[in-house]
Amino acid sequence: MKRRRPEKTTENASSPVVFKQICAHWKWFEERAKLKEMHLNSSEEMLTAKLLQSHFFQSNTQIERTQSTPKEDDHLYLCQSPIYDINGSTGPLSSFMDLIETPEKLNSINLWMGNLETKSNLHYDVSDNILCVLAGSKRITLYHPNQSLSMYPESITGSSTNHSLVDVHNVDHQKYPQFNRSQPIHFTCLPGDAILIPGGWWHQVDSSPCTVAVNFWWKSSVEEHPIHPGLELFHLKYITENVLASQRKYALDHFERDRTMAPLPSFTDAATMTEAILLGSNQHCGISYGIPVSLASVLVRELNIDQLMDVLLYAVDHHPQRLLNLLIGNVITRKMEEYENEGQKEEAEMELFYSKFFPKLDNETIPKMLDMKEQFGKRVLEYILRQLNITPS
């Protein structure tokens, strides 16, 4: 079997990459060019059909019906039909190996072919994947793995847990509102092009009529370093803690703002700023992770370090208990951590501020703030599990 290493390997691949015309020298294209010389008046579709007919196969390969254009009964779609696998197994499509070149360290090679327009379901694969287009064209829409909460995956107890419930071409925005916040990347691959799709990336593939493609799968870094048997629960807890920490931070920094909300006011003195924040604690102006966001949280988030310190010192003297309203405590904590990490104030200045602030809090306030932070974390975790379709019905 001929082997040719691609110009960019999939090791540590983190982003999709398109390789223009990397496959254009394959024997498939050489034979297609010869057929074109012999059949000058033949369409591109007819040339593809003649080339396929001359090389392969008895149709005991995997055939599946998909969503397509009219003439559904005439629709033939070869889906992930095996050409080669890591065990050296071959099938009726093995002669296709003569028409392509193969990279190293493969798991499998598969053929994809459709005579009408087709579209895959939105899904991800664990393995790294290079998809090579031989005929027709494919439009690939991709979503980063960190957008999984907006993908609405099928139930984790089902058989298609890597598939989304969303129809990308006909999104039910009421049923899947978070999908509106996703940020797709689009690529189009023509004959001779290839695209690297790293494991974990959600993708939807739309194919033109008379499309032929092959794909190569490798083990991704996730597959290369599986969870050690017996430590599954430890890994689950460790991963959950890290996910919760990052998503709780994200929930405080991003939210879907109510479009009817008026522009934020500007203030100059601590008293006016504090009163506006406390007044806004009962006014919802958006939502984050299914949790209502108050105007107070938004106002706090807009303060710089000096304004925030002035507000806290004023509030602790005049309204200590009301600091706990809704998400204010969480946002304040988040802002203080942010400013400390960025070094916007000297350590001595921060120590002076804390020496004025904390002694004025009563014995109940700090435990209440910590409890509120824990409750907020639970709500974020519940939202994550619900979005990933993990919560039992």
From TrEMBL:
Transmembrane segments: none
A Pfam short name: Cupin_8
Domain JmjC: 58-233
Annotated protein name in UniProt: JmjC domain-containing protein D
The organism of origin for this protein: Planoprotostelium fungivorum
